[in-house]
Amino acid sequence: MRLSNYFLPTLRDNPKDAQIVSHRYMLRAGMIQQASAGIYSWLPMGVRVLKKIEQIVREEQNNAGAQEILMPTIQSADLWKESGRYEDYGKELLRITDRHERDMLYGPTNEEQITEIFRSHVKSYRTLPLSLYHIQWKFRDEVRPRFGVMRGREFLMKDAYSFDLNYDDAIKSYNKMFIAYLKTYARMGLKVIPMAADSGPIGGDMSHEFIILADTGESEVFYQKNWFEVNKLDENVDIEGDLQPLVNSYLSCYAATDEKHDLDNCSLAAEDLVATRGIEVGHIFYFGTKYSDALRARVAGKDGNESSVHMGSYGVGVSRLVGAIIEANHDEKGIVWPESVTPFRVGLVNIKIDDRECLEASENFYTKLQLAGVDVLYDDRDERTGAKLANMDLIGLPWQIIVGPRGLKAGVVEIKNRRTGVLEECSIDQVMTKFRD
Ligand code: ATP
Ligand code: MG
């Protein structure tokens, strides 16, 4: 992509209202634009990151055996009246009336809708276990939308739902998602701790939140100091195997959100306990037959007897993750994208566009890198060098190739690693070898 053609409305100054760094940088790097309180348009750079995150989430859901569907954003209120949540959910639920005076709502979550799909088609244990998910916009009329996409009113969520014949099977499904979540966040370069949590308006018996540590997080959290040393994720873990010992080993390390933190039950010495803040990037629930009882989603077991299906639901905050990843990956100059979610892998900067050699070399790199399948953003604009380099640092692509007249005379260009700041001189061939995987 040529920056001269790319819609990247960057801002030089910090927007006044943005209180936290991810919100500031997302606005400054031209990723989003506020449409109204807690509601954002996603601009090209923002969409690229959102889609990358979405794709990682999708791949790990598929690996865990969940099947993708797509349910609508607007739901009929009827099912919510059946489950009792139409009354219970409170003001966060956006209630809408259509032209026929029918009660509708903008879905804040989809337990009712998925249960309706399930109960229409599944009557026997033979279809189980079954896990379905979708990645869809949600609306919750939050009292205090803030921090940009981190607490929006409209936000993108992956929500999965599992259906099992009994408690034991349901826990197997829960454990699969538990491990799939750890793999998902690890691929995004995030350090995440699963913590025992309250289940809130979803309800249920067992629930864990997946938290990344950040001073700007809204949750107060407590965890065992050596948590990350003790718990190292084995990427080759067999998701179809018995995951209970692995899940137990994670859960045996102390970690809790403030609602669940209990000093009396925490055997850690004060110096081994860290109290800090975190961002909730996922939340999983086992809630048994709460919705299947209410909505009569029943299946026949092997013995022919019918019983309510056991369910769990599993959310990932896809749009919140964009902000959360920036909270965990930035410096004073801007964003520092992890390779797995970066909007482009390489930023190519021609610092002297009116120099024939610089132009030729840059165009040549641009063509060759694209042929090699490297996602490259090429700054071919007529701008001051300082402004171009500052802009590249702000948008945070992992690698910069800087083409200037002095280097070219010696047959080299500069490669900058955005994270370490290290500059390296490379010949043209070396550049191509470095980026051709
Ligand atoms: P929170 O405690 O942050 O309000 P929640 O517990 O109400 O979230 P869940 O129902 O668990 O949210 O939703 C699943 C995931 O969706 C959360 O873990 C979070 O990452 C994301 N999410 C929830 N609310 C928002 C929001 N208002 N804006 C952006 N992402 C959100
Ligand atoms: Mg939650």
Task: Provide an overview of this structure.
By secondary structure, the protein is an alpha+beta fold. The chain is 32% helix and 28% strand. The strands form 6 sheets. Strands 3, 7, 8, 9, 10, 11, 12, 13 and 16 form a 9-stranded mixed beta sheet that branches. A 5-stranded mixed beta sheet has the order 20-19-21-22-23, sandwiched between helices. The chain is globular, with a radius of gyration of 25 Å. The chain starts with 20 loop residues before the first helix and ends with a helix. It binds adenosine-5'-triphosphate and magnesium ion. Residues 209, 280, 283 line the site of magnesium ion.
Features:
437 residues; alpha+beta; 9-stranded mixed beta sheet; 14 helices; 32% helix; globular; binds adenosine-5'-triphosphate
Task: Please outline the helices and strands.
Elements: H1 21-28, E1 32-36, E2 39-42, H2 44-63, E3 67-68, E4 74-76, H3 77-83, H4 85-88, E5 94-97, E6 103-106, H5 111-121, E7 130-139, E8 154-164, H6 167-187, E9 192-196, E10 206-213, E11 219-224, H7 227-230, H8 244-251, E12 255-257, E13 273-288, H9 290-294, E14 298-300, E15 306-308, E16 310-317, H10 318-328, E17 330-331, E18 334-335, E19 346-350, H11 356-371, E20 376-379, H12 385-395, E21 399-403, H13 405-409, E22 412-417, E23 423-427, H14 428-435
Parallel strand pairs: 3-7, 19-20, 19-21
Antiparallel strand pairs: 1-2, 4-6, 5-6, 7-8, 8-16, 9-10, 10-13, 11-12, 11-13, 13-16, 14-15, 17-18, 21-22, 22-23
